[in-house]
Amino acid sequence: MAELNYESLVRELIKPLVTHPSVVQTIMTTNGNDVLVKASVHPDDLGRVIGKKGRVASAIRTIAHAAAIRHNVNLEIEFDSNENEEE
């Protein structure tokens, strides 16, 4: 089975949710079967990505985790705002 690009997957899951899709940035780091994806969005969009009580963030993690488990990968996603981004 081909390896999945988790960085791109998370970015494409986030872009339709935000009002500033051009500002969305993702960085992926790997350590064996552990993958960490850090997603940065515009400060105005952070609430949209996290959602009430974290429901949207949880849904993004669930979808990405379902893809990762097929490849025996432990995926973790962190959300942050890109504070110094001006648009």
What can you see in these coordinates?
The chain is built from 3 helices and 3 strands. The radius of gyration is 13 Å and the shape is globular. The longest helix is centred in the last third of the chain and has 15 residues. The mean pLDDT is 90. With 87 residues, it is α+β, with helices and mostly antiparallel strands. The protein has one domain: 2-Layer Sandwich (GMP Synthetase, Chain A, domain 3), CATH 3.30.300.20. It starts with 5 loop residues before the first helix and ends in a 6-residue tail after the last strand. It has a 3-stranded mixed β-sheet with strand order 1-2-3.
Which terms summarize this structure?
single chain, 87 residues, alpha+beta, GMP Synthetase, Chain A, domain 3, three-stranded mixed beta sheet, 3 helices
Task: Estimate what percentage of residues fall within beta strands.
Answer: 25-35%
Q: Ends: how far apart?
A: 40 Å
Biggest β-sheet, characterized?
3 strands, mixed
Mean pLDDT: 90
**In what order do the strands lie side by side in the largest sheet?**
1-2-3
CATH class: Alpha Beta
Helix content: 25-40%
Shape: globular
Number of helical elements = 3
Indicate the CATH topology: GMP Synthetase, Chain A, domain 3
Structural class: alpha+beta
